[in-house]
Amino acid sequence: MSTAMASLGRRREGTPPSFAVILGSPGDEEIILDGMTAALGDDVPIIGGSSADNDVTSSWRQIAKAGRSGLSVGTPSVSSSGITIAICWASCQTATTLTSGFRTTSCKGTVTKVDEADHGRTILEIDDGSGSKPVRSVYDRWSNGKILKGAPVADGVATVLASSSFCPLGEVDGSYVRVMHPAFMHEKTGALTTFADARVGMEVTMLDAAPESLAKLISTSAKELITDAMGMSGGDATAFEPHEVVGALMIFCGGLVMAIDDSMPIAAEQLAEAVGHNNTMGVCCFGEQGMNHRRQACHGNLMFGCLLFSNKPREAKPRTPRRTQAHVAFDDDWKELAA
Asked: What's the domain count of the chain?
């Protein structure tokens, strides 16, 4: 990891990559995104997804080959807790975005306490206007008891992945929502573990959607944000139009696929329509990474990411170095580790 990131840092002074793709094990996505952004620069779009398995027993794997396209590469490596990164220089202009199909509700609150041991993945308390309380009592009231109803319990921990799929938590920034999928409710402490980081002072809301409407909402949101992403160019020099799209890579939440079940073919057809029925490859993951409405790399759950390829050639323009103190500190740290 240290050698790879140090190598990424050395490339910063040349023509910037078109985008980066990341596929890693669940758990440290935000930390990895921060490192990639520091190494690549904040003008390089990132898209990716966290590894998945069939029953959330950490049976996922990451497969990679170290090397460069067109040149010799190393033998394949397989890991259960690794990171696969592809840094890409495309010959065409690209755009990328990350969105969801959920709606906000009136159930809102402020995170007042988190477990620092897992960098905020476990929320301990929320204040929804009636004082700081364990998440269990707040979330259970917000959902009218749906979260814990029928949830399987083992060793004092209730698994709420299924019951929270249509009423997850979200961090709202204007009209943009970063979704956080609740996974485990701890009966003794009332704490809630999710698949995305939270922080003290963060405003959260309960989201909602019905299975029959979520597929349409996802495609509608995707089409709107894809258009916005193309307008902002997603890192390339100029924007392109929907009719100029020639292909797409889509990242879709595996949990969402299971939740909407029979509606997935409808969602797939509508998403294909959003990119003009062009060549598309999709990946289902247990966590999605992409660019939010501020063009910042972020990690969320139950979301949809899309990387678009156009028929417009990309103009290779050397990057003007923009070195912040954070970049300098990051380089120093990695040079020391890589030595």
From this structure: 2
User: Of the residues 179, 208, 237, which one is the last residue of a structural domain?
Assistant: 208
Sign for the CA dihedral angle at 266, 161, 306, 58 comes to negative
Task: Using the 3D structure, point to which of 150, 174, 208 is the last residue of a domain.
Answer: 208
The answer to whether the CB of 62 falls within 8 A of the CB of 23 is yes
The model's pLDDT over 213-255, given as tens digits with 9 standing for 90+, comes to 676 666 666 666 566 666 654 555 456 777 788 888 989 888 8
pLDDT tens for 49-103 read 998 888 778 888 888 877 666 666 777 888 888 888 989 999 988 888 888 888 8
Instruction: Answer yes or no: do 248 and 295 share one domain.
Output: yes
CA neighbours closer than 13 Å in the CB half-sphere of residue 184: 13
Instruction: Kindly report the backbone phi and psi dihedral angles of residue 278, in degrees, each rounded to the nearest multiple of 5, phi listed first.
Output: -90, 175
3-state secondary structure of 146: coil
Q: Helix/strand/coil (H, E, C) string of 14-58?
A: CCCCCEEEEEECCCCHHHHHHHHHHHHCCCCCEEEEECCCCCCCC
| Residue 321 and residue 229 share a domain | yes
* Residue range 118-131, pLDDT digits in tens: 889 999 999 999 99
Based on the fold, state whether residues 238 and 277 are members of the same structural domain.
yes
268-306 pLDDT, tens digit each: 787 777 777 888 888 889 999 999 888 899 999 999 888
Does 76 reside within a domain? yes
Residue 33: which domain range?
2-100+218-332
Nearest to 226 by CA among 49, 314, 312, 98: 98
